[in-house]
Amino acid sequence: MEKKVLTLNVNNQDYELYINPKTLLVEAIRDYINLTGTKRGCDTVSCGACTVMVDGMAVKACSVLAMQCEGMKIVTSEGLEVDGKLAPIQKAFLDEGAFQCGFCTSGMLMSAMAFIKETKGKPTEMQIREGIEGNICRCTGYNSIVRAIDAVVKGKYAEGKK
Amino acid sequence: MNRYTVINPHSKFTVINTHVHNVDGIAKVTGRATYTFDVVLPGMLYGKILRSPHPHAKIKGIDYSKAMALPGVKAVATGNDTIGAKQGIWRRYKDLCDEQLLTIDKVRYIGEPVAAVAAVTEEIAEKALELIDVDYEVLPATYEPLDAIKKDAPEIHEGFERNINVTRHIEWGDVDEGFAEADYIREDWFRCGGQAHMCMETRAAVSSYTPDGKLTIYHSNQSPYYMQGLMAGVMGMREGDIRVISPYVGGGFGGKFELDGAIFATAVLSKKCMKPVKIVFTREEDFIASKRRTPMFYYTRTGVKKDGTFLCREAKVFTNGGAYTGMGATALYLTGFFHSFPYVWQKGYRYDGYRVYTNTLPSTSMRGFGAPQAMWCSEQQIEWIAADLKLDPIEMRRKNSHYEGYEVPGQATIASCGINQCYDEIRKWIDSKGKLPKGHAIGLSACGFMSGGIFNWFDTPYSFSSAVITINQDGTVELNVGAQDIGQGSNTTMAIICAETLGCKLEDVKVHSSDTDYNPADLGAWGSRQTLMSGNAVKRAAEDAKKQLLEFAYAHSGLNIIYDLDIKDRWVHSVSRPERGWPYEEIVRKALRGKGGQRIMGRGFYTPYRKGMISPAYSYMLQGVEVEVDEETGKIKLCDSMTAHDCGQPINHLGLIGQLEGAFSMAAGYGYLEYMPYEDGKLMNPNLVDYKMIRAPEMPPANIAEIDTYEPEGPYGAKEAGEGLTNPTAAAIGNALFKLFGIQIKECPIRPEMVVNALKEKKAKTGK
Fold first, then answer.
1. ipTM of model
2. Taking all residues of chain B, what is their mean pLDDT, rounded to a whole number?
3. CB-based contact (8 Å) between A94 and chain B?
4. Which has fewest Cβ within 10 Å: A118, B230, B386, B654?
């Protein structure tokens, strides 16, 4: 298939790529832009390790083509911190120990971010759990992750608090 | 959401058991952590493995000329490119070294590596696999241990009569006398399923063989030292010419401390074409061609007095070993030992285990190491015995439990044991819940686990754990350990022990692990050994360095020798008058000058001696799980849980909670979700759509009451916390079903249809 030129905006940076149009978004991010924080854990869109945010929504980057994301704002785990300052959800993951091996963490953080963005008011615990249902974590048993998200939505890390 | 309490905490520490972040945390929450999966070397090629479609076949010939002719293909390797060494992690015993990772003449399971290709892209490598012609002569196959053990079953390995791979006998006391004296005897057959380790990072390796005859390997594993030693054996090289680097590792759970197809095939390919080669297993390959928890058939017979005193038990176990030995031999031993846990058998205990070869995926160690199977059978049978004798199941367990100072005859000495308080805590939790909603019940299960193995089938001449500490002029510390962090947080635990012992701050300690060139040998992360064994090595190394510092401090202080000095929180001081002292970094600089500039280095090692046959120390726990069952569909839901747990002195506070919660989720999956059905040797659900696991909505609260005991053999009194909690849950779920409906399910994982059928059967028998 003929290669195409594509401009992808990842973490507020434009990247010009020359790629096969069948390239998946996750391949573009990992193999062409070399942002390896985003992982892959399956071939069946089941594990969520490759989750990124596309225009504010959590998207499994193995389920869309890079070409489909042209002109959209893509955020990966590397794009969460600003000028060396961690995002609230990253601080909460540290405080709660919401990761162990870390392989699912990037995807989990992006699902958590999208959930927090979409949620109006105080979510129930089950809503938080459903918000990360698409992400498998083999290490933690999820409860520490739920605690971390809960702390963020309750405003524990709001500006001026911690 | 979750309650975590510590029962009777003792001594106060500066760093130990405080709320500190994981030392690898920043790397992991910012996407900076790089795994073997992420490694790219200059000029690197991509490899793929051709796998056997047959469960049992002779290889008559392999023609890969067409594959080699494909543009972009740089090398193809088969067993003929290897030295043909049969390997196994029990390398002290030649009989148990039975696996060629690229087979030469025969395949024994579906998915076994037959050839491997290195090409400039993964796509080309994959295409090349289709161009390799393998001439197979298909042989009759056998899949279940109780079939494979029959006289007329196909022979899987030459010279192993009835396909029996290993046997194990454990016995103490007089079991037969026990049965003669018993008021009540119960016998049951159980079946325990396999389970996939399902590490988020699949097996992955990058090997680079260079013209100087050296081999550098990046590999996702639990023990870089084991990999170095085993690779030396299969490559015909010296250990010291092989460097294994295991950067961040995406999970292990017992599945990553043997050689795998990725590490071996990349090394052989790299040696052939002198370029770095990378192989990453697909999720399907990881399911069908890594390894799995050992499936077992359990017969257990127990004799008791009518007051509930446990007299004796005998067990016979047949495990589905799959095609090769690996760590399965250890699982066969440990399941037999832990089937006796955590109880005293007044008259005796006898176990006979048979590990049987079959034409299926080899089985091995997985978190819990044979004990989850042992407890699934034991803890259900004990619950049924209590019901048969109309005794309180908690009190019956309590009166028979291990206690501090108990000696398991010829096997182990129990130096610390908090099980008695575990019963109190669970009783309190049950009482606090009051009357449960209709359709709910709480099931209980007790167990114990080891803190590292004493055995040395690997035949290492090194101490089991070692650590080296170097203090820099500004007081920062280089801590070099062989202990491997696979996500469980051992880097953090080692840093905590180092900082506490030396008296510096946690942020002063830089942990260097995961590289055989720069760190001392250590057996690695398995059998819950690192906190105790590597922790002891780190503690001793820090004490060694600290002693050198304090000698200078003493000379400097001019104090009367009746005063002793200590360091805490970067303050070198007189213990009786802590305000009298000097900054730690000042003493470091002075000590350096006094030593002619030589850096202060501390060395520590640990090998267990005089601790019996199994382990230096044992954790104890009792778990209660509240279960809800839909009678129509048989679907199980976990609603709540409480674990009372004794791991000695907790060291890494967040790490401990994470281990207990994580082990519980894996154990729950083993109990009712994670099913590996095989048909004619083929796994029917090798993907994450059909292999069901606990996801966030299924996970109940995991409340913990940590019983703070003191283990004399552990660093600061610590023992294991990483694996033990994988053991009780399946039986706790089963016991909840028994409480709800009186049904006895004897196979795990418990599937909905099994519950529905058991309820139907019960209705047919009793009319309700």
1. 0.98
2. 96
3. yes
4. A118
